């Protein structure tokens, strides 16, 4: 059974759209969403985030659940007004260059490495995200399997619904990765670029 946790990397994130009753799939067929009920929503009127573990009333953690940074920027523990700010229902995630020349930014994950927080097996997921342009930006909306810490190694699935590389402003990428013992890096099951 695969349960997925959501992870958001972005410079600007606008809250989930409310009251949407219909959507279209890639063939233009209308999907009726009226029978679905929300299981997790975030309106970003305030932000309850912990560094590594869902605690108290926090809904998010500020690092990947597998406890690693990647790329050239390191994710930072939440501080007052950095890297996260919320105003009028909008979450802003900022990147800053530190005095040592290294970049720091933010990440939000809905579940931690101990299976605290939100994860579910099936569902309809939606976000409105403003994508910043410019080399070095990498906003994303990902899903990763939710396995408790200490689980036996195996193949893990990661679904990158949206990865936007700022140096390529004319599109975004969607990728499925397989990670695990027989997959030393990742296998790209499907990788494509779509025009915005």
Describe this protein's structure.
This protein is 0% helix and 39% strand. It has strands spanning 4-9, 12-14, 22-24, 30-32, 49-50, 60-61, 73-75, 84-87, 90-93, 96-97, 103-105, 108-109, 128-130, 140-145, 156-163, 171-180, 183-195. The strands form five sheets. The protein has a six-stranded antiparallel sheet with strand order 12-1-14-15-16-17, with no helix packed on it. A four-stranded antiparallel sheet has the order 8-9-2-13, with no helix packed on it. A three-stranded mixed sheet has the order 7-11-10, with no helix packed on it. The radius of gyration is 17 Å and the shape is globular. The two termini are 34 Å apart.
Strand order of the largest sheet: 12-1-14-15-16-17
Q: Average pLDDT across residues?
A: 75
Number of strands: 17
- What fraction of residues sit in β-strands? 35-45%
Q: Let me know the largest β-sheet.
A: 6 strands, antiparallel
Structural class: mainly beta
Summarize the structure.
With 196 residues, this protein is mostly beta strands.
Task: List the topology elements.
Elements: E1 4-9, E2 12-14, E3 22-24, E4 30-32, E5 49-50, E6 60-61, E7 73-75, E8 84-87, E9 90-93, E10 96-97, E11 103-105, E12 108-109, E13 128-130, E14 140-145, E15 156-163, E16 171-180, E17 183-195
Parallel strand pairs: 5-6, 7-11
Antiparallel strand pairs: 1-12, 1-14, 2-9, 2-13, 3-4, 8-9, 10-11, 14-15, 15-16, 16-17
């Amino acid at each position: 059974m695969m349960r997925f946790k959501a992870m958001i990397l972005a410079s600007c994130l606008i809250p989930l759209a409310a009251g949407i009753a219909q959507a279209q799939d890639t063939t233009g067929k209308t999907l009726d969403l009226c029978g679905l009920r929300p299981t997790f929503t975030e309106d970003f009127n305030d932000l309850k985030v912990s560094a590594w573990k869902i605690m108290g009333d926090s809904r998010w953690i500020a690092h990947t659940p597998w406890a690693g940074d990647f790329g050239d920027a390191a994710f930072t523990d939440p501080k007052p007004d950095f890297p996260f700010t919320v105003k009028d229902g909008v979450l802003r995630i900022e990147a800053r260059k530190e005095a040592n020349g290294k970049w720091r930014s933010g990440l939000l994950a809905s579940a931690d490495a101990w299976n605290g927080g939100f994860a579910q097996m099936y569902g309809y997921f939606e976000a409105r995200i403003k994508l910043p342009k410019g080399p070095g930006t990498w906003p994303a909306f990902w899903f990763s399997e939710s396995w408790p810490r200490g689980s036996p190694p195996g193949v893990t699935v990661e679904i990158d619904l949206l990865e936007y590389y700022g140096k390529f402003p004319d599109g975004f990428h969607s990728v499925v990765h397989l990670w695990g013992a027989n997959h030393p890096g990742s296998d790209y099951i499907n990788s494509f670029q779509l025009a915005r």
